[in-house]
Design brief:
It is a multi-pass membrane protein. By secondary structure, this protein is α/β, with parallel strands linked by helices. It is built from 13 helices and eleven strands. Helix 7 links the parallel strand 3 and strand 4 (191-194). The longest helix is centred in the N-terminal third of the chain and has 25 residues, at 37-61.
């Protein structure tokens, strides 16, 4: 193990030194709505007029420095042909002062004017620079975010639950190899990383070592095990939740470092079985699992006036008590009395105002 540490540190250093412009097709930060094209064109046109007026005034107030006395119209004409590099040569600077003004003021303004003429190219360069700067700022500031690996059915459902529970979109990072599904995630305002989560480089780009929670939801169980191993190695303190299709693979994910494992096939099978016998139970379960409507299973800290009470006698319908990170069901001996620092797992009624707030 000691011999591997220098290599890992060197790899981390190399990843941190990657130029931000090299990540433009890998990391995507949600941006605000783009300005109207008409507004952009009008803004460039206004800047061009200002430059034209500046050169006009410079030439007009130094009328004696040119080959002939200048009226304001002459100065405007000279400004137009000079900035556009047409240069007919009928009006030229003749004094030393006028020529210095042309070298140090008019020439830079002419360059700026030409840049405006090729504004499309400038716009592209500016947009790429803005995105590179945005990625750089995000990589420095990202902390306590949630990473969702795999944006298939399970990953999208996990993100929907997070958003409905009040997590800000900018605090969720989605990793996937499918560019089309990442575009869907971007439309929701999520940060996306294009790449395979089996590679530590991709996980590091997503800031896995600084993440608060990580949802592992790939399409296959073997990929889930490999990703969980990599995640746990890079983020030993993060809360890792993994999804597995078959129950016989649950222990592999737990041994790989997953704090919680959800068996998707068994959960769906139980719901199907219940639906054939007691469909109303399935309807209620779906209601509890949907945080944005009806009833929802939620967690909250214990109030001061609730300490020492039996959770069965509280106003909320309490399902369990979380103490020191351990969940005790409501029928266990440990959950008979509420202690300071406990958190209650309870059934919360979601009102329309709560939905609007989210």
């Amino acid at each position: 193990m000691p011999s591997r540490l220098p290599d890992r540190f060197r790899d981390e250093l190399q990843r941190s030194e990657i130029p931000n412009h090299a990540l433009l097709n890998v990391v995507h930060i949600p941006a605000s709505a783009a300005a109207s094209p008409i507004r952009l064109i009008m803004r460039r046109f206004l800047i061009a007029l200002i430059l034209l007026l500046m050169v006009t005034l410079i030439a007009y107030f130094d009328e004696g420095g040119y080959s002939e006395p200048l009226t304001f119209i002459d100065a405007l004409y000279y400004s137009a042909v000079s900035l556009s590099t047409t240069g007919y040569g009928d009006i030229t600077p003749v004094t030393q002062f006028a020529r210095l003004i042309n070298i140090f003021i008019v020439t830079p303004l002419r360059v700026a004017f030409l840049i405006l003429l090729v504004g499309t190219t400038l716009s592209v360069l500016t947009e790429e620079s803005r995105k590179a700067w945005q990625i750089q700022r995000w990589r420095k500031k990202m902390r306590n975010h949630t990473i969702v690996i795999g944006y298939g059915t399970k990953g999208r459902s996990a993100v929907s639950a997070l958003l409905a529970d009040g997590v800000a979109p900018k605090e969720i990072v989605v990793i996937d190899t499918d560019r089309s599904v990442l575009e869907v995630a971007e439309s929701q305002g999520l940060v996306t990383v294009n790449g395979s989560a089996t590679r530590s480089e991709v996980l590091k780009l997503a800031g896995v070592s600084k993440a608060k929670a990580i949802v592992v939801a790939p399409s296959t169980d073997d990929t889930a095990v490999l990703v969980t191993l990599s995640v746990r190695e890079l983020a030993p303190s993060a809360w890792v939740v993994a999804s597995v299709r078959e129950s016989e693979n649950q222990h592999l994910l737990e041994q790989s470092g997953a704090d919680s494992v959800v068996i998707s096939s068994e959960t769906a099978g139980r719901m199907l079985g219940l639906a054939t016998v007691t469909p109303s139970v399935v309807e209620m379960m779906e209601d509890l699992l949907s945080p944005d409507e009806g009833f929802s299973v939620a967690e909250r800290p214990v109030a001061e006036d609730e300490v020492g009470a039996n959770p069965r006698h509280l106003a909320d319908i309490v399902l369990g008590v979380v103490r020191s990170g351990e969940l005790y069901r409501i029928d266990s001996l440990e959950a008979e009395t509420v202690e300071p620092g406990d958190r209650l797992l309870y059934v919360r009624r979601v009102f329309s105002d709560d939905i609007k707030d989210h």
